[in-house]
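Example 9 (inverse folding). The structure is encoded as follows.
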C-alpha cells in the first residue's frame, strides 16, 4: 500500500522519482496503528497524568481499566468547550491558554521526552469555570530520544542568540541536510528554520493574531521543494514535532494570542 502511494506521487510529478518516501510512509503507517491502539493510548494517558499531576492548569481524563479493552477505551467524561471558541474570551485568557500549551510542548520535548504530536484543535477543550485546559486523545504520542531532544534545544537556543553557525550545526545534527544539498538549498532551509523560530527570538510577547507566520512558513517550504528542488525528508520524529508546533502556531493565530515564547523556553530546564 505504501509503495503504491509513493508510485502515485512520483507518476503525477508531485515529487521526483528519485525521492524515497517509503521509510516515511512506513513510519506514518506505524503511527496510525498506534493511534488506534487503545492499550497504548491508555498507557500514554497515564504517563501524562504522572507528569502533570501537580500542574493545575490541565485536566486529563482518568481511564477505567476494568471497562477498557483492545477495542474500547473507557474514560471519565470531562466537561469543556471547544478551545477555538475561546477567541471570544478576554485577551488575558487567550494569552494564558497559549502560554500554557507552548510551555507544555517545551516540557514534552525537553523534559518528558514524550510528545502528543496530533495538533487537531479537538484534542483541547477549555473549562471557563476552573480556567483549566482539558487534554484529550493521546493516541499520537511519541517517545523522543536524547539526541533529537538536544538537537532541537540547541537549534532554538542558537536562534534565540542569533548564532547562525549554531543553527546550522543543530540542523545537521537533527538530520535536515542531505548529502548532496547545494549551498543555495542549505541557505533557503536555514532561512526557513530562522523564520520558524521568529516568535522565540524576541524577549517580548509575539502577536500571533497580527502575524502571517504560518502561511509564510508554508510558502517558503513550497519554494524550497518546488523551485529549489530540495526533497530531503528529515527523520519522522522531526516531522511529527513540526506538525505539533505548526498546529500550536495556528491555534495561537486563531485565538489572536500574544505569547512570550522566549521567556517560556528559558523557564524549561536544559535537557539531560
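The amino acid assigned to each position is listed next.
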Amino acid at each position: 500500500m505504501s509503495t503504491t502511494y509513493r508510485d502515485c506521487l512520483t507518476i503525477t510529478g508531485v515529487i521526483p522519482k528519485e525521492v524515497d518516501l517509503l521509510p516515511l510512509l512506513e513510519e506514518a503507517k506505524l503511527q496510525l496503528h498506534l493511534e488506534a491502539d487503545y492499550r497504548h493510548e491508555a498507557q500514554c494517558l497515564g504517563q501524562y497524568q504522572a507528569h502533570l499531576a501537580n500542574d493545575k492548569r490541565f485536566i486529563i481524563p482518568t481511564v477505567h481499566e476494568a471497562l477498557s479493552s483492545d477495542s474500547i477505551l473507557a474514560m471519565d467524561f470531562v466537561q469543556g468547550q471547544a478551545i477555538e471558541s475561546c477567541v471570544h474570551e478576554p485577551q488575558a485568557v487567550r494569552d494564558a491558554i497559549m502560554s500554557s500549551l507552548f510551555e507544555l510542548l517545551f516540557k514534552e520535548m525537553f523534559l518528558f521526552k514524550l510528545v502528543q504530536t496530533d495538533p487537531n484543535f479537538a484534542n483541547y477543550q477549555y473549562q471557563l469555570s476552573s480556567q483549566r485546559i482539558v487534554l484529550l486523545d493521546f493516541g499520537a504520542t511519541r517517545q523522543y530520544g536524547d539526541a533529537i531532544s538536544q538537537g532541537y534545544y540547541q537549534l532554538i537556543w542558537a536562534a534565540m542568540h542569533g548564532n547562525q553557525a549554531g543553527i546550522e550545526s543543530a540542523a545537521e545534527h537533527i538530520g535536515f541536510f542531505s548529502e548532496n544539498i547545494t549551498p543555495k538549498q542549505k541557505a533557503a532551509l536555514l532561512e526557513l528554520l530562522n523564520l520558524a523560530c521568529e516568535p522565540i527570538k524576541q524577549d517580548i510577547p509575539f502577536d500571533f493574531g497580527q502575524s502571517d507566520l504560518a502561511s509564510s512558513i508554508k510558502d517558503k517550504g513550497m519554494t524550497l521543494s518546488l523551485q529549489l528542488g530540495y526533497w530531503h525528508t528529515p527523520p519522522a520524529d522531526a516531522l511529527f514535532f513540526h506538525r505539533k508546533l505548526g498546529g500550536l502556531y495556528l491555534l495561537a493565530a486563531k485565538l489572536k494570542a500574544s505569547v512570550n515564547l522566549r521567556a517560556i523556553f528559558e523557564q524549561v530546564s536544559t535537557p539531560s
